[in-house]
Amino acid sequence: MSGAQTMTGAPTAPAVAVCGDGKAEGAEQCDGQDFKGMTCATLGMGNASAQLMCKQDRCVIDTIMCFSGGMMASGAGTGAGGTGARMMGAAGAGGSGR
C-alpha cells in the first residue's frame, strides 16, 4: 500500500524489492518482463527492435539480443553463466563486487 500509516500515524517503511516477483523495484534493473520502460532502443543498443532479457537470478538486464538480432533457444543465456551475455551496468547496482 502506498502511503500506508501505522496506528500512531507514522508512515510505514516502503516494501522491499524482491527479485522474482515480476515487479522491477528499487535497485532491480528488471524483474520478469518489467524493464522499467527500458528497451534496446532506449538503451541505444545495436538492434533497436530486439527484446531485452532479464537475468532472473539477479534481476539485471541482459542485452545480448540487442546485439545479435536473432532468436535464442528457449532458456539459452537466461540462467547464471549464460554464454556471451552482455550485462547492462548501472550506477550503484551490482557494484559491491559480489
Tell me what you see in this structure:
This protein is mostly loops and 98 residues long. The chain has one helix and two strands; from the N terminus they run E-E-H. It has one domain. A hairpin with a 4-residue loop joins strand 1 (53-55) and strand 2 (60-62).
Can you tag this structure with a few keywords?
single chain, 98 residues, little secondary structure, two-stranded antiparallel sheet, 1 helix, disordered C terminus
List strands and helices in order, with pairings.
Layout: E1 53-55, E2 60-62, H1 64-68
Antiparallel strand pairs: 1-2
Q: Distance between termini?
A: 32 Å
* Number of discrete helical segments: 1
How many individual domains? 1
Strand content: 5-15%
Low-confidence runs: 72-85, 90-98
Strand order of the largest sheet: 1-2
Radius of gyration: 16 Å
N-to-C series of helices and strands? EEH
Average residue-wise pLDDT: 73
Shape: elongated
Helix content: under 10%
Counting helices, strands and paired strands, the structural category is: little secondary structure
- Biggest beta sheet summary: 2 strands, antiparallel
The count of β-strands is 2
In short:
This protein is low in regular secondary structure. The chain is built from one helix and two strands, in the order E-E-H.
